[in-house]
Amino acid sequence: MRLAWVFLALAIATEVIGLTVMKAASSSGGTWGYAVMYASIALSYVFLAKAVKTISVGVAYAIWEGSGIGLITLVSVFVFNHVLSNQEMIGLLMAVGGIVLVNAGEVHDEEDMKVADDRV
């Protein structure tokens, strides 16, 4: 179970790297930047696929996408000097709240996981 969460964290990290490089490559127009972007985003999906072998798809995708949005926003603010509007801040807070709620609904106990597996 812990390995699935490591794969999910790697999926999030590689997505953030790919999208950050995308922004930089679109500004400079470098071909290598696009290659790194495509490779990072593809690797992100590979890690996500490994994570969903254990974590339910809905939970993994919600965490992957929501965390990615939050981290990309932080990169935009601190690296690319983007200024967030109040509406953007409220939207991000709602996304974080949604991630927390989705994650809270996930079965984490090994005994509960066995019961859930027996139902299938």
Q: Which SSEs are present, and which pair or pack?
A:
Layout: H1 2-28, H2 31-51, H3 57-78, H4 86-104, H5 110-119
Helix pairs in contact: 1-2, 1-3, 3-4
Give an account of the 3D structure.
The chain is built from five helices and no strands. It is mainly alpha-helical. Helix 1 (2-28) runs antiparallel to helix 2 (31-51), helix 1 crosses helix 3 and helix 3 (57-78) packs antiparallel against helix 4 (86-104). The radius of gyration is 17 Å and the shape is flat.
What would the principal axes of the Cα set say about the shape? flat
Parts with pLDDT < 50 across at least 5 consecutive residues: none
Q: Which secondary-structure class do the elements indicate? A: mainly alpha
> Biggest β-sheet, characterized?
none
Work out the number of β strands. 0
User: What's the helix count?
Assistant: 5
Distance between the termini: 18 Å
Write down the secondary-structure element order.
HHHHH
- Percent strand equals under 5%
Average pLDDT number: 86
Radius of gyration: 17 Å
> What percent of the residues sit in helical stretches (DSSP H or I)?
over 70%
Subunit structure: Forms a complex with MdtI.
InterPro entries: EmrE-like (IPR037185), Small_drug/metabolite_transptr (IPR000390), Small_multidrug_res (IPR045324)
Membrane topology: Multi-pass membrane protein
Transmembrane segments: 34-52, 59-83, 89-105
